[in-house]
């Protein structure tokens, strides 16, 4: 008699109880939203703004790992997730444990690691400030550490590795309590980095001279990371209950919230990069005035070239640099090289705002004459922008 005959000895009503359908539905729907958001991000960066960068490369790797995690989740649901553990045939249960192992490797380890590194590299576009960069690079290093630690933990749970789902190999495994503690450490690290990446840009964005609508939009999108924090906390609570769980397959909350945490994280990380496509629909201009602020990024670069000194000049230069990088991130502008020229363009950024030029001149005691010319065309619609030509007499 095969081992599958075990199903004939259970209560038929208990065997008929299953959560598999809605577990698959919820995870697949949320993952579809995350996947579409990521695809739109890649299209925006690669085609619309032509600014595909290293943060996008890491996001691609996170999405690929997410696909692997989703496949493992579907296999798990078809082999026992959502069913009572005592109604699952032994062969299917072993397949479930193997799928759970691969989901932990590609999703709990690498997918989260690649996602956090992508977010950090995106935030590096916000500022040139050394303190801000150091914090982000420290978070990247910390993410690499606990990602590798989690990977090693999953690999060394049992010796040989296949013993995790094949007891016939008579594996040597460490205790469930130790395994639970490793899982809690990984969950805590993910929660900490989620909070850090969702909080760091908020005061910086609010202090910039941008439309209030733009600031609220960016803060609201970045605050989506707090949803991932909530899911991470829920996951950690069910990891704590893992040791005493006797029917963990009927409500597999820990891997369920893990999958949702990754999907929400991808959505929150990709949404700010969609500004070039959503800007018109949401009427999001990157500056306080659509004409005066059209060349804000170029203005910030040009101001850095003026020979200035004093506290006022330093504040002006810092504000311009921060705003320039923020505009670059949400509009998808290309990077500027050392010669202050746009890559792929022959334009030299000599246009600055008159009010900024006046502050610069007053700070250094120089004489500045400015001539302005403007057209009613919105630069974000492809028209001519209002600029100010500045001449500095020393």
From TrEMBL:
GO terms for cellular component: membrane. Keywords: Membrane, Transmembrane, Transmembrane helix. Residues 40-279 form the Rhodopsin domain. The keyword ATP-binding does not apply. The chain crosses the membrane at residues 20-44, 56-81, 136-157, 184-206, 218-243, 255-274. Pfam families: Fung_rhodopsin. The keyword Transmembrane helix applies. Residues 359-394 are annotated as: Disordered. It is found in: Membrane. It is a multi-pass membrane protein. Signal peptide: none annotated. Belongs to the SAT4 family. This is Rhodopsin domain-containing protein. It comes from Corynascus novoguineensis.
């Amino acid at each position: 008699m095969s081992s599958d005959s075990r199903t004939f000895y259970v209560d038929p009503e208990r065997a008929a109880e299953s959560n598999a359908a809605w577990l698959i539905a919820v995870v697949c729907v949320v993952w579809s939203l995350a996947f579409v958001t990521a695809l739109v991000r890649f299209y925006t960066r690669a085609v619309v703004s032509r600014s595909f960068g290293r943060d996008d490369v890491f996001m691609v790797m996170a999405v690929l790992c997410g696909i692997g995690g989703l496949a493992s989740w579907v296999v798990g649901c078809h082999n026992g997730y959502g069913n009572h553990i005592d109604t699952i045939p032994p062969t299917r249960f072993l397949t479930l444990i193997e799928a759970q192992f691969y989901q932990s490797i590609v999703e709990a380890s690498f997918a989260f690691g690649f996602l956090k590194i992508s977010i950090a590299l995106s935030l590096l576009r916000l500022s040139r400030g050394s303190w801000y960069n150091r914090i982000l690079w420290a978070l990247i290093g910390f993410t690499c550490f606990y990602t590798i630690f989690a990977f090693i933990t999953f690999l060394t749970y049992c010796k040989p590795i296949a013993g995790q789902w094949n007891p016939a190999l008579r594996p040597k495994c460490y205790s469930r309590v130790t395994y639970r503690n490793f899982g809690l450490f990984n969950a805590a690290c993910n929660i900490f980095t989620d909070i850090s990446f969702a909080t760091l840009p908020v005061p910086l964005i609010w202090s910039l001279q941008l439309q209030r609508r733009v600031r609220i939009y960016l803060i609201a999108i970045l605050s989506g990371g707090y949803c991932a924090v909530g899911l991470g906390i829920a996951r950690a609570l069910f990891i704590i209950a893992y040791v005493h769980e006797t029917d963990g397959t009927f409500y597999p909350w820990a891997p369920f919230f893990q999958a949702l945490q990754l999907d929400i994280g991808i959505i929150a990380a990709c949404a700010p990069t969609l500004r070039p496509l959503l800007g018109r629909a949401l009427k999001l201009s990157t500056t306080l005035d659509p004409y005066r602020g059209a060349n804000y990024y170029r203005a910030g670069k040009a101001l850095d070239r003026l020979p200035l000194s004093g506290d006022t000049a330093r504040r002006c230069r810092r504000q311009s640099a921060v705003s320039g990088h923020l505009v670059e991130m949400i509009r998808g502008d290309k990077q500027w090289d050392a010669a202050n020229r746009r890559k792929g363009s022959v334009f030299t950024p000599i246009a600055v705002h008159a009010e900024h030029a006046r502050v610069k001149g007053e700070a250094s005691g120089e004489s500045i004459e400015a001539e302005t010319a403007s057209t009613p065309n919105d630069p974000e619609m492809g028209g001519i922008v209002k600029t100010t030509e500045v001449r500095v007499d020393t």
